Amino acid sequence: YRARVRTIVTRMDQAVSGFFRGRLTIALGSAVLYSFGWALTGIRYWFLLGLITGVLTIIPYASLIGWPLAVLLKYLDVLSAEHSAFDLMTIVVWPSLAYLLVQFIESWLLTPWVQSQSMDMSAVTVLIVVFVGGALGGFYGLLLAIPVAACLKILAEELVLPQLARRATAPPQS
Fold first, then answer.
1. Under a CB-based contact definition with an 8 Å cutoff, are residues 133 and 121 in contact?
2. CA 78, 80, 86 angle in degrees (round to 5)?
3. Sign of the dihedral through C-alpha 145, 67, 51, 26
4. pLDDT tops 70 at residue 44
5. What is the 3-state secondary structure (H, E, C) of 90-131?
6. Confidence of residue 89 (pLDDT cuts 50, 70, 90)
7. Which of 54, 90, 94, 136 could form a disulfide with 41 if both were Cys (CB 3.0 to 4.6 A apart)?
8. Which residue pairs, CB below 8 angstroms and at least 24 apart, start in 78-82?
9. Alpha-carbon distance 155 to 174, whole Å?
């Protein structure tokens, strides 16, 4: 069984490494989107803040750190300006809207699309797997749901489906 086990393990290794390459791609795309959004809202250090927040998307929910930092930087910028008044739209709403828009794009469009391409699963399957993984395993479920599902898919393709195909084509026993 050595050759078969080697084939299965190699496919699993490719799936898991594809998952991590996909997460890095998502982090890069998110960093660009965060930087662009915060540049539009006029936040100082938008590039650095966007880069940090984008890299933190590798860890689920860690990018949340970028949102209060963006609001704080905008608040300090408004405070340092002469003849400035506290404007809720400028300080809180626009940076928050930029953050939430990028979060929506990353969570509902970018992640399912990139992970489905790198894991050979449909985008809907990726979303369902993440929801189930989060519900069952919390933080670790979110983190490991996609690679575990890819490995289970490989095991099913290599071990279960051939057995079912053999049983389906076998002549009926009397």
1. no
2. 35
3. positive
4. yes
5. HHHHHHHHHHHHHHHHHHHHHHHHHHHHHHCCCHHHHHHHHH
6. confident
7. 94
8. none
9. 32
Here the tokens at position 49 are 């803040």
Q: Which residues contact residue 61 at a Cβ distance below 8 angstroms, ignoring those fewer than 6 apart?
A: 139, 142
Residue with tokens 């915060």: 38
- Whether the predicted pLDDT of 157 surpasses 90: yes
- Residues 163 and 108: their CA atoms lie apart, in Å, by 36
Question: pLDDT tens digits, residue range 108-146?
Answer: 899 888 988 888 888 888 889 989 999 999 888 988 999
Identify which of 5, 20, 8, 10 has the alpha carbon closest to the alpha carbon of residue 144: 20
What is the average per-residue pLDDT within 21-43? 95
CA distance 157 to 169: 17
Is residue 174 very low, low, confident or very high in pLDDT (cuts 50, 70, 90)? low
Q: What's the pLDDT score for residue 108?
A: 87
Tokens, residue 114 = 């990139």
Q: Token digits for 51?
A: 């880069």
Tokens of 36: 């662009």
Residue 37's contacts (CB-CB under 8 Å, 6 or more residues apart) are: 50, 98, 99, 101, 102
